Q: What sequence folds into this?
């Protein structure tokens, strides 16, 4: 465990327990997120990292897919209010975490909203507000209906086109759903309350 491995297989994590607890927020502050990922990977017990919040830590760069290998954290994966760029790694669709929240709001993420978002298991809250996401909302996001998702926030991006009718079916499933301050061309009547 005293070596400097850049990453550790999950099945080996029991042999690589860290020598002591440290404040992950302090370790990662003001670093590119990939560096933070390597810190997590090389100096912590990879299966039992406890992430409370990395909000507003001036993190930059893209979101490393290696972060999805963590198998335990404190219910909220919070990277809000940083300077993260790029897209959400598709590996998030493969995680098997207990009920959890993903907060990537107030960053510089861009591109189209990935269709795999609705495939993320046990997700209770998804906050992607105030980024630079463009294009249309994938109709697949309507399949969140019947899942554990209770909060969905897509406000203040550059989303455009038509709001899929499938999204409006979430009205009875999701207690909080926000899509205002985008550039939609038309709104289904049943969605109008969310677009004020």
A:
């Amino acid at each position: 465990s005293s070596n400097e491995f850049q990453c550790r297989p999950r099945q080996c994590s029991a042999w690589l327990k860290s020598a002591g607890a440290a404040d992950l927020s302090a370790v990662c502050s003001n670093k590119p997120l990939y560096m933070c990922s390597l810190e997590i990977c090389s100096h912590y017990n990879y299966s039992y990292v406890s992430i409370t919040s990395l909000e507003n830590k001036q993190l930059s760069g893209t979101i490393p897919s290696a972060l999805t290998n963590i198998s335990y954290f404190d219910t909220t994966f919070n990277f809000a209010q940083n300077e993260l760029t790029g897209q959400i790694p598709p590996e998030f669709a493969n995680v098997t975490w207990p009920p959890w929240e993903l907060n990537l709001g107030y960053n510089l993420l861009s591109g189209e909203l990935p269709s795999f978002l609705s495939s993320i298991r046990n997700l209770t809250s998804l906050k992607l507000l105030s980024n630079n996401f463009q294009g249309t909302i994938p109709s697949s996001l309507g399949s969140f209906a019947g899942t554990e998702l209770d909060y969905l926030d897509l406000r203040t991006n550059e989303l455009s086109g038509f709001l899929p009718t499938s999204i409006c079916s979430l009205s009875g499933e999701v207690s909080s759903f926000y899509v205002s301050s985008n550039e939609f061309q038309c709104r289904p009547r049943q969605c109008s309350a969310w677009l004020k």
